[in-house]
Amino acid sequence: MDETWLHHFTPKSNRRSSERTEHDEPTPKRGKTQQSAGKVMASVFWDAHGIIFIDYLKKGRTINSDYYIVLLDCLKDEIAEKQRHSKKKKVLLHQKIAPCHRSVKTMAKIFVE
Questions:
Q1: Whole-prediction pTM value?
Q2: Residue 83: how many other CB atoms lie within 10 Å
Q3: What is 2-112's CATH number, 3.30.420.10, 1.10.4160.10, 1.10.10.10, 3.40.190.10?
Q4: What are phi and psi of 86, to 5 degrees?
């Protein structure tokens, strides 16, 4: 499991960046464009076979213990859906040491199930 920021941006097209100029003429100056129009936090859960579940955090929200516990419930459902054929009953969860990952509520949720 890992969280990452995904940035929105509109890349320049190759045609626009390849303006023709004469040999002795300087290239036209362009102002800097804002690369990112916005960003969103993505929580990604994966295993050896690929991505299991991705959650995109809504604007203005933060990841706290309650939100993370809901993510763990969604992850449990996704694992049950994608690994129906598997007899594997235990899941090893590797996560960072963020406060929401190691809170008392989260640890109780992880160790109860």
A1: 0.65
A2: 14
A3: 3.30.420.10
A4: -80, 140
State phi, psi for 108 to the nearest 5 degrees. Answer: -65, -40
The contacts of residue 36 (CB under 8 Å, 6+ apart) are 7, 8, 9
Token pair listed for 38: 């916005």
Q: Identify the CA nearest to 77 among candidates 63, 58, 91.
A: 91
pLDDT tens by residue, 49-90: 889 889 999 888 888 899 999 999 998 898 888 776 666 667
d(CA 65, CA 13): 42
